[in-house]
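Supplementary Methods S3. Input chains for the assembly prediction are listed below.
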Amino acid sequence: MTKKISLPRGTADILPDEIAAWQNLETTARTILKNYRYQEIRTPVFEETGLFVRSLGGASDVVQKQMLNLSSMKEVSETSLKNEGLSLRPEATASIVRSYIQNSFDKKESLSKLYYIGPMFRGERPQKGRLRQFHQIGVEAIGPNSSIPSLDAEIIALSVHLLTSFGLKDLKLKINSLGTKEDKEKFSGLLREQLRKNISSLCEDCQQRFDRNVFRILDCKNEGCKKIVAGLSLGQTHLSKLSQDYFSEVKKALELWNVPYEVSPTLVRGLDYYTHTIFEISHKALGSQDALGAGGRYNGLVGELGGNNVGAIGFALGMERILLVKSKETVKSSLEVFIVYHKESMGLNYTKSSAESPQEYTAQHAKEFGALMETEAYKEAFVLLNNIRKIGISADMSYFPASMKSQMRLADKLGAKRVIIIGENELKENVVMLKDMEKGTQEKILLDKICEVLK
Ligand code: HAM
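Predicted structure tokens for the full assembly:
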């Protein structure tokens, strides 16, 4: 037998019976985002690798271990700094900033409020809630008028509003401030100072992180490292007075909007571009990969990527993780009408073996289908199906010869609200039966009036 091809590790098919849950998330998100005046932006799923290296940081885990390069596409633009090729986007903030600069958004408006929904790619070791292709709903507010504490509060509140509107409860919101670039440097110095005495007790990864990316030690999942981190005494001493004041105003604004939060001095983010306010929303049902979404301010990034020095803040929510927490929502398709034709009177003998799973249309099928098409019931059902769909009502029927019983079973499985039964005898009187599947009632309707009645 030919070997079957499976989907790549860390990816997933989103099957028809799961799609309603995805579409619900997307529709709810779009409505809420519009109310906050965010507009959708779509950027390519791959970009020059250099964009991510410069934005997320060469020492970040994402760049070090998770970038998925497109080895067959080497060409890069003339503006590329290094010839690093192209990569699938591990996140979208860098792409949005690239587009913001390229399209001179800052010349058009003082605050650009953008959102995106789409797939991201990270070559991670797959596990529950951690995929190689996953999807995010993300928001970025960028522009000369973006460095204002009320916008930080809006962004945080919006992420919580989205999650609660998806029906999620028991969310945990943690916030922290990294301060300016200089404050961040002070913070990493402070961390190294406190961790140095325990360096040999850290896990192998963290020992490397000590010089390369000391912040990552704070969210290491290793039990030994967690214990050491719990013993650290970190406050907000690394923050300048101005950064501390900014963070206080953010907290006050959150309180005005009644957004419950917890300040967590050990909260850091894995990507280099963050400054000032950072936050993460988690849910205990997710286990070790418990972040439903995260974000923060990234005031230096637009300038570092060649744009004007404008501030920015944003977040992204992981759609797979949201759906993992939500109880599995399998919504039946909303079919309005299913048409059943009465086969008993047709004298068909589409044999079971030929009807089971015919790969090819055989001469036998041709003969049997020809006979089926000759029956008034099938022909009328087929014509009516087309007419119903044309008046904007969803409808279906079984093209394959099937017993009345199995056609009714299919109607039920598809969640049809109404069933039209077309029988040879009824057709002689020019009527069909209309069955209301919810009420269980049935009435005779004139064939030429059925579309009117359905409407
Ligand atoms: P992030 O923390 O890397 O931030 O990802 C945001 C969310 O995406 C995570 O909290 C998680 O729900 C989901 N996520 C991340 N990686 C995976 C994965 N491998 N499998 C499944 N879900 C995953 C960012 O991406 C930033 N761009 C957020 C941001 C926007 N900051 C400012 N603006």
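The two ends are 51 Å apart (CA to CA). The mean pLDDT is 90.
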